[in-house]
Amino acid sequence: MTHLMRVSALVLLTAALIAPASKASAQAYPSKPVRVIVPFGAGGPADVYARVLAHHLSETLKQNFVVEDRPGGGATIGTEAVAKSPADGYTLLVMSNTHTTNESLMPTKGYQLMRDLAPITAINYSDVMMVVHPSVGAKNLKEFITIAKSKPGQLNYASSGPGTPYHMAGELFKAMSGTDIVHVPHKTSGDMRSSVLGGHVQMMFDAITVLAPSVRSGQLIALGTSGKKRSSVMPDVPTIDEAGVPGYESTIWLGVMAPAGTPKPIIDKLNAEIVKIINLPDVKEAWAKQGAVPMPMTPEEFDKYLRQDIEKWAHVVKVSGATAQ
């Protein structure tokens, strides 16, 4: 046997051994509990929807999927923990467009999204709502813009941290409305809400369903929602586009990733199971009431979506001059 023949035989033998092993590992997965890291605060959209997925995955895959909230650092703390975990499918990340924004907003963080993490699928997307504390004195968006322009740098808006959809919704609004409003980051969405409800910070963007009770009770004033059309949850509130900032649109979306190098059979298995869950009639119905729209994707489709979103928010960061403050 020539040297070339020996090498060819070795390659074929290796491939034959690896293929069944990979298939078997996917079939046996999961054989122990799986951690689902949410790098945001408890009670926010990522935490809520992660628990829906974990509940159904635990039932269908017969192992516990345990949600662990690890907020802080604009979602970088929990994300870095996942990026540095073993690539075996037993540590997953529930992420959002915070992560695609952070690629340009925080270029020196301890990981790179598309290098250190592997896409599984998107989960859903939803619009957010812009609200102000009654003390601002604005009853609609045009009044707020007038007040903000008369007091440059004197009004503040809250977010749940640098790079979060709430932060970038604010930066996009500032850029498109020509206003100078100061960003006040908080560690969690709960802290952000407390600041605005208490009147310590004047404005914020937040999940529509979370804000709806406070708007209906008069604790906060709704100025607009961030989608292309009005929200079914708050149909009386105009979109920001129709209320005074033409072309404005900003949503929050969620997805699932794993450490880079996680075997493809495991990625594909998780993708198939999660897509089944988000297409369940009862899940879709419950999410619709919360203003969330399912976003099932293949790993390849989600990979493309992530790369496009990174480019989109890099442009917004550049135009708006947003910083990780």
The class by helix and strand makeup works out as: alpha/beta
Termini Cα gap = 66 Å
Overall 3D geometry? Answer: globular
**Would you state the CATH class of the largest domain?**
Alpha Beta
The helix count comes to 13
* N-to-C order of helices and strands: HEHEHEHHEHEHEHEHEHEHHEH
CATH architecture of the largest domain: 3-Layer(aba) Sandwich
Annotated CATH topology of the largest domain: D-Maltodextrin-Binding Protein, domain 2
Percent helix among the residues?
A: 40-55%
Point out poorly predicted stretches. none
Report on this model:
The structure is a single chain. The chain has 325 residues and is an alpha/beta fold. It folds into 2 domains: 164 residues, 3-Layer(aba) Sandwich (D-Maltodextrin-Binding Protein, domain 2), CATH 3.40.190.150; 117 residues, Periplasmic binding protein-like II (D-Maltodextrin-Binding Protein, domain 2, 3-Layer(aba) Sandwich), CATH 3.40.190. The protein contains 13 helices and 10 strands. Strands 1, 2, 3, 4, 5, 6, 7, 8, 9 and 10 form a 10-stranded mixed sheet that branches. α1 packs parallel to α11 and α4 packs across α13. The protein is globular and about 65 Å long.
